[in-house]
Radical SAM protein
Amino acid sequence: MHKATTGDSPHWRCGPAFTCGRSATKTRTRRSAWSALTAAGENVDVRYVTIDDVRWELNGGQPLTPPPQSDPLTYSASSNRQNAIKLLRDAATVIVVAGDAVPSVHLHAHNGSLDEIIRILACVRGRRVLLGPMANHVLANADAYAGLFDALHTHTITSKDIAVGSRAGAPFEKLRADRDSFIDLVGELGWEPVGEIELYRGCTRRRYCSFCNEPVKSAAVVFRDLQDVLDEVHQLYVAGVRHLRLGQQTCFFSAWNRDVTKIEQLLAGIRDGCPDLEVLHIDNADPLAVASPAGARISALVAQYCSEGNCAPMGMESFDPAVIETNALTCTPQILRRAIDNINAVGTQRGPAGLPTLLPGINIIYGLPGETHRTHLANLQGLDSLMTAGVMCHRTNVRQARAYAGTPLAGMNADIPPSQEHFTTWKADIDSIWDQPMKQRVYPVGLRLRGLHSFFVTGRGTWFRRLGSYPIQVVERDAVVPHYTPADLTVTEHAPRFIYGVRDAG
Ligand code: SF4
């Protein structure tokens, strides 16, 4: 089923850190690398392996965690697992996709570290190319990694620049010209992928938040042609992808400058062209856009066309006015409340699987300039007032600021923020006053959730979920259930970041 080789050296692509292909950014980056290699020559044989495949082989064809527990280091298997190292050794070109734009933690996947990648590259005889956020790190430490890679691509890769490297995203037309079929790629994945779709690059605001590296990645706002998006979606659908997330851009609601008509054409076009799609979700929303009159109409469209369990994560970042002011943040507590109300007005009804159709998510950042102990109090008060108001929220992400090169934050002289010492306890406070009670509200005891599947086993039990955007994870205590076993579960208990349930008998 792969393209035939004609005596050319085959081109392989190694994708370390493919956090299960289910993690957002890398699915799109992986596709662009696949397309670039495929378009680079006639009869090129392109293959895909994961860092997990290589770890598996280096460990003698065994997981690193003994069964029955699942192993996050070797979990994501491609169809090339049995000869991953030979593929890498013999390839004419190896493109390594690595690094996270935003730090993320996954139960069932561990990103490949640079040390791991260096070790693996020792066996590669062909051209070595690095693609993704890790390229920025290598560029910033050029002396330490001199000679390790033949080309570095920080954002995208195309057939025309594989060997020379690139420091900015390629024009969408060039990516479109390389794109052909994803049938072979999807056929090599040992899991059900969620296809991540990008609608535009850049931030539509005039003044940028201090911590954000999106304006560094793309100084200008560039929207994709609608038909280009629909074509890519259809190519994925033809390849067998049934789960999609419109999530690579900074705000789904700001696509084409909040053009409600065009956004409806997008959603309706996807539904028309992909009648058997199982999941259609969005990601990333600027609360300012969601709170606007256009935002209210777009929320209704998302509820109408997308599938249940959907989430619009919004960057509140901080409820503290001093932090908001110092860092030019986009949101205030009042704007957030209007945005949540717009989403809750159309999204709280449950679908056939028992999940709310569309709920907001909230992102909080600690460690920004201007932070004091009062910042944490303001955050707790802000969340508590939302809880008292009865809103429904899907998930909350609390993280520490990271000063990316080129952002205003990187140039700001600030005192050491108190969260440096208190982050763990402050996060635990939010868990107890907000996250766990919200889980109880959204997933009450006795609620039946349908159409889940098991995907991981830990000492706690077996973890179940549906695919999608930040899906709720349901643990069946002390159970050992084979991966991908379908199940319906009834909610029994709550933790801050997941819930417990029991499987229906039979
Ligand atoms: S956080 Fe969002 S609103 Fe702020 S600069 Fe980044 S993309 Fe723009």
The longest helix spans residues 419-442. Residues 194-442 form a domain with the pyruvate-formate lyase- activating enzyme fold (CATH 3.80.30.20).
